[in-house]
Amino acid sequence: MTKRYWNITLEEMLEAGVHFGHGTRKWNPRMAPYISAKRKGIHITNLTRTARFLSEACDLVFDAARSGKQFLIVGTKKKAADSVARAAIRARCHYVNKKWIGGMLTNWYTTESRLYKFRDLKTKQKTGRLKKRDAAIVKRQLSRLERYMGGIKYMTGLPDIVIIVDQQEEYRALQECITLGIPTICLIDTNCEPDLADFSIPANDDAIASIRLILTKLVFAICEGRSSYIRNS
Questions:
Q1: HAMAP family annotated for this entry (predicted)?
Q2: How much is the pTM?
Q3: Burial of 156 (0-12, 13-18, 19+ CB in 10 A)
Q4: Mind listing the pLDDT tens digit of every residue in the chain (233 residues)?
């Protein structure tokens, strides 16, 4: 993995509140190496380590994108949902930002069947040949499928790398990746387990600005990698 410069500064991380952890009563002692201080009952994340791990994660996704790998970004809590969708669309990644449906990856056959149904219903709706009652039923079905599977509707197989915004919120998604051996990159706050994901980035996973900053850096690296892949194809 070649190291590159991704313009990650301590100033922008401070401004985004990346350093703010959870209260000192709600923490995982295994996160101690990533914590630099306590302030007013809150743990402060060591931003020097965050910058290092984020830079290494950018190198990782750049190399993967340059090799034509496919990414899935997962973040379903309200504070993360919009940032996840924007970041994924910009980098042409798949995403889940509303609800993780159990077995989405581990039971890929069922997920794939639902996606086929999704595309089939879309085709039927576009033809405009449905009866009024049937059209209403199809519309309701499509609305539900779009809500929960709209971000993966073009996914034709399991992703090569999964980026997870909140380890605790997306624990089921992380467990499915571990079961299948899919590499994961995960934001970890001070209450998380640092060794679950393949690649962890210590950061505030509750603040919108913090989530957006981390995703922006990763997405930029993915886009750069994709451009390199296209140039070399």
A1: Ribosomal_uS2_B
A2: 0.93
A3: exposed
A4: 667 889 899 999 999 999 999 988 889 999 999 999 998 899 999 999 999 999 999 999 999 999 999 999 999 999 999 999 999 999 999 999 999 999 999 999 999 999 998 888 888 777 777 677 777 887 888 888 889 999 999 999 999 999 999 999 999 999 999 999 999 999 999 999 999 999 999 999 999 999 999 999 999 999 999 998 888 86
Cβ neighbors of 78 (< 8 A, separation 6 or more) are none
| Separation CA 104–CA 121 (nearest Å) | 20
Q: According to CATH, what is the number of the domain 10-103+159-232?
A: 3.40.50.10490
CATH number of 108-150: 1.10.287
Which residue type, as a one-letter code, is found at position 173? A
Q: Look up residue 190 and give its two tokens.
A: 């001070």
